Amino acid sequence: MVNETQHTCSASSSSKSDGGSSSGSESSKDSSRCSTPVLDADRHERLREKMRRRQDSGDKWFSLEFFPPRTANAAVNLISRFDRMGAGGPLFIDVTWHPAGDPGSDKETSSMIIANTAVNYCGLETILHMTCCNQTKDDITGHLQKAKRLGLKNIMALRGDPVGEEWEEEVDGFNYAVDLVKHIRNEFDDYFDICVAGYPKGHPDAESYEADLRHLKEKVFAGADFIITQLFFRSETFLKFMKDCQAIGITCPIIPGIFPIQGYHSLRQLVKLSKLEVPQEIKDVIEPIKDNDAAIRNYGVELAVSMCRELLDSGMVHGLHFYTLNREVATTEVLKRLGIWKEDPRRPLPWAVSAHPKRRVEDVRPIFWASRPKSYIYRTQEWDDFPNGRWGNSSSPAFGELKDYYLFYLKSKSPREELLKMWGEELTGEESVFEVFTCYITGEPNKNGHKVTCMPWNDDPLATETNLLKEQLEKVNRRGILTINSQPNINGKPSTDPIVGWGPSGGYVFQKAYLEFFTSSEIVTALLKVLKKYELRVNYHIVNVKGQNITNAPDLQPNAVTWGIFPGREIIQPTVVDPVSFLSWKDEAFALWIEQWAKLYEEESPSRMIIQYIHDNYYLVNLVDNDFPLENCLWQVVDDTFELLN
Amino acid sequence: MVNETQHTCSASSSSKSDGGSSSGSESSKDSSRCSTPVLDADRHERLREKMRRRQDSGDKWFSLEFFPPRTANAAVNLISRFDRMGAGGPLFIDVTWHPAGDPGSDKETSSMIIANTAVNYCGLETILHMTCCNQTKDDITGHLQKAKRLGLKNIMALRGDPVGEEWEEEVDGFNYAVDLVKHIRNEFDDYFDICVAGYPKGHPDAESYEADLRHLKEKVFAGADFIITQLFFRSETFLKFMKDCQAIGITCPIIPGIFPIQGYHSLRQLVKLSKLEVPQEIKDVIEPIKDNDAAIRNYGVELAVSMCRELLDSGMVHGLHFYTLNREVATTEVLKRLGIWKEDPRRPLPWAVSAHPKRRVEDVRPIFWASRPKSYIYRTQEWDDFPNGRWGNSSSPAFGELKDYYLFYLKSKSPREELLKMWGEELTGEESVFEVFTCYITGEPNKNGHKVTCMPWNDDPLATETNLLKEQLEKVNRRGILTINSQPNINGKPSTDPIVGWGPSGGYVFQKAYLEFFTSSEIVTALLKVLKKYELRVNYHIVNVKGQNITNAPDLQPNAVTWGIFPGREIIQPTVVDPVSFLSWKDEAFALWIEQWAKLYEEESPSRMIIQYIHDNYYLVNLVDNDFPLENCLWQVVDDTFELLN
């Protein structure tokens, strides 16, 4: 009878017996399980394990290759692209390494920093390329140490292009990718997953196709976990290569590199670099339409789709690697037509999970940074303890210092002229500021006909969830309650709810109503009188830029405002209103008035002085309605406040 | 305007500024706040702080003195008394020290073990008395170390009675209580709160009343935190003493010792020991009724109530200390008439919180021990990490070994004859066992006319909450689903609900439905077929005594089955179904069949063989219905199982 179920396992009948326990962990209490409930196995897996699991489940996947951009502006755009293309569900992305571009530096555009951003701020599993020829052991070790420190877990080990025409091996130097693979395994043991390059037509510098296969086998036997191939033009090329690899004993995953042709010139350039030959039948199609970009791209998409289908249909291919050339349209189109672009509206947590290995257990964040997740990740990057740690004293260095936080990817995506059009070329008083906030909420154009699609506290249009509160928000912003964050109360909606759901299916999610705004001291005075009536129901924190802080919160305890109950799990409470971190957020929230808005205007201009006045005199307020099963009372609090003022 | 509220505080305006932070803890992230939400400040306070807080708030309190019992049976009864009298809300209890009774030993009846039980198993703040004369420094240090190790935090430092009539001071020995106070402070710094004795009439051995006051002052200045007085018969005696103490500079709390006269003989004995004189007016009343116990007790209660009223009305007394003589009725009566006996049906958590300082942060327990909390505390006493720790591998020594667990206070309170009447002098088959379970549920007498008020898994009558499920429970027990633990689902009832509520007011409590039972392998086979239909909704663990374990639980994660949402707090989830600890519980649950039930019968008797058969062949099953907002489906699961069997 016991054998009827899949989940049978045998446990020791005595609590002291040695053998046969059903538990996976064999040791004593020291290795007691983490207290953080595991919501998605994914978070705890290495890339090679994810790959293996997807292969076993027959679930096809894709990955995306990008190169580091040349300018800071291009970097900001590339990161937006990471966010958008990340939504399609790539198993990983990779970032190439250009020795000439100072790839290991701290520059905004270096390979290292772009990969760091992808992992830490975009939450993407990322492979950093690294080349080794013409570099010292110390340089390479330094790069690898830095990568590890930044939370990168995967390296694509490459030789790189030697300098000059005539190249000679250095004795004891890094002459081939295999040397780098060995070095990584020697110095970093099993920390990194290592990827190496395969050449379906053989490397152009190799003595022969067979010799190149033997080199590949050496790289794998030296410790590489999987192979990504150079691009190719016919599926047979890859399938033959794969069989040849298997024939000589290469058993690790081999991922075909797919290059959707996107334009005549990029194709020519790539062919030149890779020393590949474009098949005649492709040339025949392209040459006549070489000046028609759209036509070439359509053809490229067709070609890629049909080649990918052949690969997938062969049963030998489980994942496809795309050379995107940092472009979005062609690759996305191919993926959608193949049916492997999977936008999953379901979130594992109500905020984007970072892919840094240190943060994989993170399961709670203050609500304040809801619209500025990259800023939160940046400011907490030195934390060691995420699941159980709480926010220390606001005067402690636990939060990254504010002065550092103007990283390029925390800046607005919009240029100054755009911002001026949205937020006003010239402000005439506090009311013109109220109007900007109101237009942002309503989506209506301002009096100059421009839509307000971002604010200093929120670089994106209003969240779908906030739309639920639109009407009330509009009303209060018009009257000088300048809202920057809010959520409605929710009393047990299914975790699969398209707007407010998160976490595994079969669960229920809950929220306490939350409202955060800037407002004048006059309104705060009235608000405080009104709040006396709501003393037991509403928790408030009210603070000005000087740090005068008024609150009825008990001690310094966080208030959970989002939580979820799931089958067979402990309770998850991913969002809290934390009184200590609020004081750090306050610094950031007030600074944004000056840094992002006031500085758009000339010094001593009336517009600048209006923003400066608000910065100096307004209060930042947050309100929580603890009684989540009842109708949200925060609007009543605000109405009562306005009534008292009238 | 900021000054209008009480909660104003000033915070630093920069996250790096040194001064003026609103946070209480000044240091960095290292001292980050505990992740356990503080539900009751009480749990984290020392006794002297609790005393101070109650004095400041004007909230009168009482405490209770007990002496160690002479026999193990009497100890079991005393511990039940602790549980009952603990319900009235004493600020602390104290346990006296009798040098002749091996008070520091591990005997069931020693002062040390009785105090240990009060703290750890009854959750009572406890003072352990300790005397010092005729003892070596090493003995005393040993006792104190042991007390500390057991979680005792308060010592009443006494001289004790010297041996023999003629007593001489030992040089460098412990001659007076003050020597013990100094020793505790020298060796244990500020770890213990120290209480010393005061004599409102002067100590009988002192040269004079004034000299005795000076001795008392020495004890306080040596480090005592508060004073409890010897008994007295008139409130004026105490009030004069208190004024005299204050006059010479004693400022610590002085707590009057109240002795409700409970009988003629006990009064005579006490008077003889304490060398006190009973006032003539009391003698005049008592002598004529000396053979009428009830009359004397009534008079004693009257006398105590009026004296306590005078003391409390004086405004100088904030707490009253009662010499209970290990009796319950008189003291409880006095306290109730004074209005300071406060049975608070509201629980801080759904289980009784231990008073051990190490366990004060404990906030989650497996549901399995719900009816055996003392056993759970005993078996986890070596744990270091309560709030975030989880249960390690069941084969680890994290749980106290089963073989040790037959502590006297884990045994049934009922004698063997009682148990036989309830559970059957002679069993005729499995059905007669079903009948015992059914009678326990219904409260109806068994066929021999005896009510079944306890079971091996539950030493008390059915919990009020379980009554909610009575009808269904009766039905299933009759058919051989032998339930030992259950709870209904609850979808957000107020935390003040008299039956299922717990925690501070203004909150909401939730539960997932839970059912745990023993049943035959035939029923398990059918049940498993039925459970396939409920695969996504119901989590199950099914295990037999040999440890064959069948489950659909994901990994080894605990499933939260009780949680609460409170204003301004993080989520509290005090009860979980933990797959790992279930295997330790299984050992205990199966052992109870043999140890408590089978062993009532002769070896090889049919009755014993029936219980042995059940022990060897039945399964222990637990079921959780994850869909708490819907109607509990577990009864449907059981019904479907019976239907399948028919």
UniProtKB/TrEMBL annotation, chains A, B:
BP-aspect Gene Ontology terms: methionine biosynthetic process; tetrahydrofolate interconversion
Source species, domain of life: Eukaryota
Cofactor(s) needed: FAD
Any single GO molecular-function term of the entry would be: methylenetetrahydrofolate reductase (NADPH) activity
| EC supergroup of this enzyme | oxidoreductase
Coiled coil as UniProt keyword? no
* Quaternary structure (record): Homodimer.
Q: What is this protein called?
A: Methylenetetrahydrofolate reductase (NADPH)
Species the sequence originates in: Oceanites oceanicus (Wilson's storm petrel)
